[in-house]
Design a protein that fits this description.
Length: 601
Amino acid sequence: MEFKKDNLFNVPEKPGVYLFFDKKGNLLYVGKARNLKERLKTHMTVEYENPRLRLLLNRINTFQFITTASEPEALLLENNLIKSKKPRFNIRLRDDKKYPYIKLTVNEKFPRIFTTRDLRDDGSLLIGPFHSAKSLRKALRVALKIFPIRTCKYVLPSKRKINPCLEYDLKRCPAPCVEGLVSAEEYREVVKKLVFFFSGNTKSVEDYLLDEIEKLKENLDFEKAARLRDILYSIREISRTQTAVLDENKSIDVLAASVHYPFASVCILRVRNGKLIDIESFILDNPISSDEKEVIFSFISQYYLSGIIGSEEVVVEMLREDHYEVQEALRIKRNVSIRFREPQNNDEEKLIKMAKENAEYKLEEYFSEKKGKVIISKSVVELKENLNLPFHPIHIECLDISHSFGDERVAAIVVFKNGKKDKKLYRKFKIKTEDIKSDPHMVYEVVKRRFKRLKEENGKLPDLFIIDGGKAQLSAAVKALRELDISDVAICAFAKTYDQLYFPDGRVVMIPKKSSAIKLLRGIRGEAHRFALTYHRDKMVKKIKISELDGIPGIGEKKKVEILRYFGSIERLKGASVDEISKVRGIGKKLAEIIYERLHS
């Protein structure tokens, strides 16, 4: 029916799923609702701030709805429709890079275990993902050593006669294909322990094995007891080699997201018995620029409902109020109990921070590598918004001055393209004018030389030029640009004290500390400082090599640099006392006496 308020009288006030279509009948969006009528009415009447959400609503021509008995059932239906129909405006896990998994066919009488990249929902449980096929094969070998389960493709039980294979002789399969060797109940108990093990409940598995070993020893079945003992040692060895991140023996999944239109990234930290065993990041399509809370909710709906074995507790930074629907849907569909919650202590807060940083790195990497296309990085987009620039500052240059009390005065310019270093374009400058002593005057000279050269060679001017300094340095740079008649370059000074940015129009901007924009700016400033200081030290070392400090025992190149930086010249050093010399970093009283005697001998 048409997307009009007049058609709402046919919509019931029940839970269910609604579908939006455009004029051509293409499915745009699938959503779930506790109350279908109220949710659709909201979409028709509310003026949303999100411009991409407004774009979606403007394109809707018709809608359909499907009622369900409960909200968890609505969530299950929504998840299935998103996977099968792939509507354009829904948040979706991308599948362009399929990781290998271990699949456990728990819906069969005698479940089998094998490797797969097929994530279709067929009622099986998935263990993984694994970063490589090699790590997957290793995990499978360990799993079969500890929990012997069949890997064959037989449909069991079978009427045909089947002989046990080599896996049975190797004690890696109890041969359920042969009637009488193992009962379905015994086999299921092994499968249950395997699921416990991969869910992080290794303690319960260890306790079970210890009890079984004692029983076997009492019955004098030492051969089987020895096999179980070896399995117990294998489990403990796996646990021992993992990194501890929690004081308690908790098993949790920790989730955090990073969002940047039109994609998002979610990172999972898998913590088992207080130890971090794996980190994995996933990319999602985010066509309407949903926030992190919405992205997390969509991810846990699609990820855990697909049959992947997770921990019994999942910790996220922010929960939606209706997160219990996913818990109930998992109980209905998978018969598993998972609790979603927010962090409860400092250790879990640190894990959330770690997951968030990894999600940000994954998203940055995806943007920079995506199919060879130049996609503006998240940090550059945020920089444009925070500095209120009319364009994205793809090409950024930063200038830093370095000298020792006016001696060996040099400058360096570093270049970043789309948030990444472009070292081929780095430039070094030696200050030419002898009577220039102040930093602003040096900035003036270097800026004028740099942009005059670019102008003469018809080179690409930077979108944003940053000076490591304050207002005085900015004024000198603006003067140089004005004299060259260059006005289409955004220029600012970035002060270290409070991370303030000064602009020629008088604006002073402070960017939020947690934003990727400030991280980019600090990285650029730090790189400029490193490059300038390295050049300055090289010049100093060349000068010091022919100085009167050569040959003094205990004085290497680094200490020469420190001495000259402290005093500024050999002449000043000669006029210093032993106590003054000993104040130089790395120079003690004894070495100061040696230097003094050598200079005055």
